[in-house]
Design a protein that fits this description.
Distance between the termini: 33 Å
Strand content: 35-45%
CATH topology: Barwin-like endoglucanases
Number of strands: 6
Order of helices and strands: HEEHEEEHE
Number of helices: 3
Structural class: alpha/beta
CATH superfamily: RlpA-like domain
Radius of gyration: 17 Å
Helix content: 10-25%
CATH class: Mainly Beta
Shape: globular
Strand order of the largest sheet: 1-5-2-4-3-6
């Protein structure tokens, strides 16, 4: 009984410490960075994303600005920061800086499917 109580408590603690809040998925594209909707200027080598408008929210800076996300696609994973808004993206979609996009696919591909989660 004592072992099972410790095991259950350990599993619960691990679940509570998980870095993922929830999961999303969609299309990934890339864009030329610069002054973003979060009010900061970035360069193409930064690992940043423009979040789709439905999830970005309203206000300045948007409520999702500066949050870290973890992206997975094509057997690879990378972390990025939300620094801009993508008005042309659908719910779950991300527009990536060129260097981040290149972590997953060739620019010649132009688009790929991915999943992403917020990181605590």
């Amino acid at each position: 009984m004592f072992f099972s109580t410790i095991f259950v408590a350990s599993v619960a603690a691990l679940a509570a410490a998980s870095p993922v809040k929830r999961g999303f998925g969609g299309r990934a594209t890339f864009y030329a960075t610069g002054l973003g909707a979060c009010g900061e200027t970035n360069v193409d080598s930064d690992h940043i994303v423009a979040l789709n408008t439905p999830q970005f929210g309203s206000g300045y800076p948007g409520p999702e600005c500066f949050k870290q996300i973890q992206i997975s696609a094509n057997g690879k994973t990378a972390t990025a920061t939300i620094m801009d808004q993508c008005p042309g993206c659908g719910y779950g979609d991300l527009d990536m800086s060129p260097s981040l996009f290149n972590q997953f696919a060739s620019p010649d591909d132009g688009v790929f499917q991915m999943t992403w989660d917020y990181v605590n």
